[in-house]
Amino acid sequence: MSDYARYSRQVVLREVGVNGQSLLRDSTALVIGLGGLGAPASLYLAGAGLGQLLLSDRDHVERSNLQRQIVYRNADLGRSKLEAAADNLRALNPECRIDSRPGPLDEAGLLAAVRAADVVLDCTDNFPARFAINRACVAARKPLVSGAAIRFEGQIAVFRPGGPCYACLFGEGGEAAETCEEAGILGPVVGVIGAMQALLALKLLLGIGDDAGRLHLWDAATLSWRSLKADRDPHCRVCGTHD
After folding, report:
1. 20 to 30 A Cα–Cα from 6, which one of 22, 45, 76, 243?
2. Among candidates 137, 97, 99, which has minimal Cα distance to 120?
3. Are 32 and 116 in contact (CB under 8 A)?
4. Which of 87, 132, 88, 91 is nearest to 113 (CA)?
5. Residue 171 pLDDT level (bands cut at 50, 70, 90)
6. Do 95 and 10 meet the contact criterion of CB atoms below 8 Å apart?
7. What pTM was estimated for this model as a whole?
8. How far is CA 159 from the centre of its chain?
9. Strand ranges (DSSP E) for 78-129?
10. CB count, 10 Å around CB of 151?
């Protein structure tokens, strides 16, 4: 291990150890969307010692982003989110390799990015992107960690190859989702869900537990969680014909 002191607090965990830390060093995560979810998720993954982060986004940093997208600084205003996030993640942990994939990715580009990763984090904010990412993950047989947050509400789910996929829960004809610009969002709400996405991705890579097959819903106003079982739809147009 190149920097034991950096990772010592998690290496002492029985579930991680030196071998687990080496596994993280050899792993790659794809983070699609560098907004309120992707910002904290990418910071925690880089901080944990992930060997490589593949990042994809198409936007530039705006002043309204700084309230919740904590990977950016005031000096980043007007910069590409990919460039600004990459610089700040390298400043946090220069051992983490950063590979930028400018969005929006077409079908072939998305599938190639998914195939290059060990785990995919969907941190986008619209149904078309979520459905496209889900299709690519099913085709490449890669685990997907999906998150969403708006107002005081958040949700998160893990989808593994062979189990239910995102389309099993939401179909592929979902209505247009409200945006944070329209409905509002309290910064820590989206931060909690983004941090949870990083946690679930790390657990997947380390083989800790099995969080797949459930949709977790969080009400930040009451600090309450509820969990719904996700069943595979044998007639799903995305995963119904896959083992």
Report:
1. 76
2. 137
3. no
4. 132
5. confident
6. no
7. 0.94
8. 12
9. 97-100, 119-122
10. 15
